[in-house]
Amino acid sequence: MELGGPWSFYSEFRRAHALASLPHPEPPEIALQVPGTLVIPLWVRNRTAKTQEITVSTVLPAGWTAESGTGKFTVGAKQVAAARIEVNLPALVENNAKKPEPQEISVHAESRAQSIGEIKLRVELRKRALPQ
Prior knowledge:
The chain is mainly beta. The protein has one helix spanning 5-16, and strands at 2-3, 29-33, 36-45, 52-59, 65-68, 71-75, 80-89, 103-111, 114-126.
């Protein structure tokens, strides 16, 4: 399992153009305007010769909820499936003089009770930010 969307694009771009030495944040980061929705695009690969049932779950900070994209789905033998998790983000606390700390979320995938991947993503909530 790996991040899709812009994270995947820039990872492939760096590889294709021999730019692997360029700095990039680990874990990947994003800043979003709240309240709103975080969309996490995923690529789930089945490298086996059999169809696999994959379970995708998230670990989220308090007050954040996974709206869609978690649960079980099937990936055919030697196939790649696209998945998309949508997370509802809470509003910022009013009258808080401190800038909120970035929060880390995790996406887990497992098949046959064994972990097949984990993705961590750091998310900064802001009053104003460009759309995802």
